[in-house]
Amino acid sequence: METNNFNYVRSEQETSAMSKTFMASVFSWMSAALVITTIVAYYFAHNADLFALLVNPLGGLTTLGYVVAFSPLAFILVISFGFNRLSYPVLLFLFLLFSAVMGMSLSFIFFQYTEASIYGTFAAAAGMFGLMAVVGYTTKTDLTNFGSIMMMGLVGIIIASFINWFMQSAMMGYVISVIGVLVFTGLTAYDVQKLKRIGAGVEYGTEVASKLVIMGALNLYMDFLNLFLFLLRIFGDRK
Asked: Where are the domains of the chain?
């Protein structure tokens, strides 16, 4: 009887260790992607030659500018649906390339908002993201149903944003941004808990586990980025 209890405790400890190792890898790659995005965004916004690759002298988008504007969705679809077919190195390369392309895209916010408000909002988003990540990792409450509600909210945001693209309503845009902050704050906690459970069940060190790390990093990267952008739309000081 004592042996069974000991084995149970040891198994639980091993599971916890596997989960921590998995999550550490997820956050490491997510952070690496955010660093790439931040550096690329800053340099494209502050270097006229680089920014000219995206915008022509008349103010319109160049060919690369259009690619940068419309390729993020393609990256996400390729990475998501290519999970089983793509090797880990290819998946990692696409994820890091995606983060660089997102940096090019985000360089435009430096011409829309003051740098002080961008940095302040980024810090606020980091704080909120970190808090909800801790909640998601430590809570004993099952967030599956909560996550389903957040996903429905995300679908609603996408539909409302598409409608507002035609309406161009400032009030509707503000409401969408507020809901967006709530949705991605909630999704952060849900995704962290989901990834924690995935990490506890994978055989760490295999290619499948490594690929799951990249997918987890992509999920959290998008949670943070969307949270930041929605906060910026609400609190950012426009030029």
From this structure: 2-235
